[in-house]
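Fold this complex.
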Amino acid sequence: MSEGAGAAAPGPERSGGKAPPEAPRERATHRAGSEPTFLQRFLRNIWSANTVTVTVLAIVLAMVIGAILIIVSDPEVLAAFGYFFAAPGSALRESWAVVSDAYANLLKGAIVDPAAVQGAINGTNSWELVFQSISETLTYAAPLIFTGLAVALAFRGGLFNIGAQGQAILGAIGAGVLGFALNLPLLLHMIVALIGAVFAGALWGFVPGYLKARTGAHEVITTIMLNYVALLFLSWLIIQEGIQDPGRSDAISKPVDSDSYLIDLPGPSLRANLGMVFGVLACAGVAWLLGRSTFGFELRAVGSNPDAARTAGMSVTRTYVLTMVVSGALAGLGGAALVLGTAHNLTVLVVGQIGFNGILVALLGRAKPWGVLLAALLFGALQAGGNRMQSYSGISVELVTVLQALIVLFIAAPAFVKTIFQLRAARAARLETSLAKGW
Amino acid sequence: MANDKIDLTVEPGEIHALLGENGAGKSTLMNVLYGLLQPDDGEIVVDGTVMSFKSPRDAIAAGIGMVHQHFMLVPVFTVAENVMLGHEQTSGGPVGFLDRRRARRELIEVSRRYGLDVDPDAIVEDLPVGVQQRVEIVKALTRQVDLLILDEPTAALTPQEIDELLAVMRTLEESGKSIVFITHKLKEVKAIADRITVIRRGRTVETTTPDASEEQLAALMVGRSVILKVDKDRARPGDTVLEVTGLTVYDERGHRAVDGVDFEVRAGEVLGVAGVQGNGQTELVEAIMGLRPPRTGTVRVAGRDVTGARTKDILHSGVGYIPEDRSVDGLVRDFTVAENLVLDVYDRPPYGSGLRLNPDAITAGATETIQRFDVRTRSAEAPVSTLSGGNQQKVIVAREMSRPLKLLVAAQPTRGVDVGSIEFIHAQVIAERDSGAGVLLVSSELDEVMSVADRVAVMYRGKILAIVSPDTPREDIGLLMAGVSPDE
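Structure:
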């Protein structure tokens, strides 16, 4: 019965009832702030891991599981496993053949195809083909840098911005509408469209930030809701007159003016564009903001201990709002990078999953700006390589999604599990002492 | 390692004081004795039998009981219900009815036998802290324990309640119970203990008798001789730096925590606020610092009305603030020592201006401050969480005192801090006073208020009952702390 007694005897500090004034006032010392929140513990655990080893191991482990998936999804190889005991060599040989072919194409598509290098040397194909793969990787990475930074920045401020997806959609709308509605000179048009994306994304970040500061509404709930609002707004917008492409009957907007394109860097035949350059600049900017600005100092203090931040005279609510505004602006740039960089039209799926993938990138990058850059490059490489793997080895590009998910899972899961155990241990310790005190 | 080969022998019918600084390993030792922690080495022998306690239940079965610093009573239950809780008697088989009558009878019997007067039908939340503690002791005694561990039992009591507790302890001693009395208060140890074991950094330093002087005991605790008395000259009060008039503040539960308080603090003096914890001191300080909006009344700092002003503006107008709970309100655990040292001045030159932060200036400033205030840390870039409690508190003190102050508001500045750091912090507070700042010192340690303050305001149920001289006898201040006004 003593378990029941312990649980039923929370003692004066957690009673919440009307204790007499002379009862020890535990509330002040036992406020929620004295115990780190789930998010704080989780991030601390993610950081405390040996990042390089853990990341490499996670990638290797994900590739191994990916290999198993490749084998079981190939009927011929699976058939060979039917005679495994008669001819084990053939089953293993065939497995090796299909897996190595798939992963070779993944690498060729992500980094460089040696055949193209050979061809360029021999003069049978252009040098541009050599850089084709790396160009694709950078193209896919650029938007993820922005959404990854958006989520990472919010993490550091103690906020879980699930709404990067919606903010990216708003950014895409802002950039897209300004992209085809205006007629401005080259470069200037691009800059104006990007500013439009920043404002639209910032607005979509401001709303949950303001709601949290003003009413305490949890940002996870509000940002998820606003993701739907953004998506439905986009679906509605692109079939409106003046927005929809007059020559099309399907839901697609007018193309943005070519003067607003993010300029293709290496040449028209390669897709890599200014987005990547802006992405690296954004990393530098966020690194500066976090480490060398007064706002970053406030953001980190509020993210780590809002009570102490408030006591030291910082405005916690203002910091929450500003953090979400900057986070939303970054995510909005991610959407713009897609519209102005590659898509050039607004469609329902224009931003794909960059907002949600941004969460994975932020976790993989340990919520640090340069970590986000590396993580986004890895995700971009997997996406680019996956496309080639699909067309050359016939393996579904969805395998890449599985690999991305597994990598993050292997990195985040230990921290996640550890956090859950820590929380349980903390709760058990409280229960134990209450057992002791309650006899 | 929290305990390193500690020996402790408690004789039957003795009061054995366990004396040590915070973090010396007292609580760890007691948690081992009480089955909450398992020792890596060594054994527990009860009445000649080697025991191994896997949980508090084993310890209770072996006759060891413990009363923790924070009581674990259900506030809405009666005393009898709380005493039977966890030890319920039933009548009519295993799924029978609670036998309240028997529980009540046992309770009355125990309280008669030991002279522990409690009303079995009183609701616990209506009882004063001292009586609640008595309920805890009765609860332990109904479990037939022979050894009772009291962990910091006097922390939340008024001086009168402390006297009553000591009397109860003597009664128990006479009836053959043994008591381990954990404390860091030297006066109480000398008043009651038969033997005293001092532990320091997880080791037994010495077992001695109450004949040892307070200075000797303090020296054993700290490992060097300490000055127990705060060395200070007479205050030379100047202009009023803090003027509080008619201040009323409500707590988050909607209760009037501060009830029409008036006082002033002059430059060059320390006004101490004494009182049992939870009588509105926290809310008073928070209202002064702009952290909690007052319902009525005004707060003036150096003549300027700052009622309802932003905390930042109050801090920047020359007010230093040492919050009462350093881990919650004082420090950002993940930040470095250097960053914590500028937590409220990071946006002012030379550390930062506008949006620009100057990490080099922060590090340089920190290196100098760490030296000046003798903060023991590996480096300025070490996370503040790697520091000991006393050094963490020094970081806060250093931060607040390294800028020119008109007023210092110090709430429980030495709570949970080792004797050496207490000495240092008190000297700093007096130095701040002597350099012309007014100090508002809030502390639930009466000794601290009486030795540091130049005037003592006693707070009870949100009101300041009287402002007296620190030379007033302890008993009189104790009565005020219990709510007895001098004119009544």
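The CA atoms of residues 333 and 385 of chain B lie 5 Å apart.
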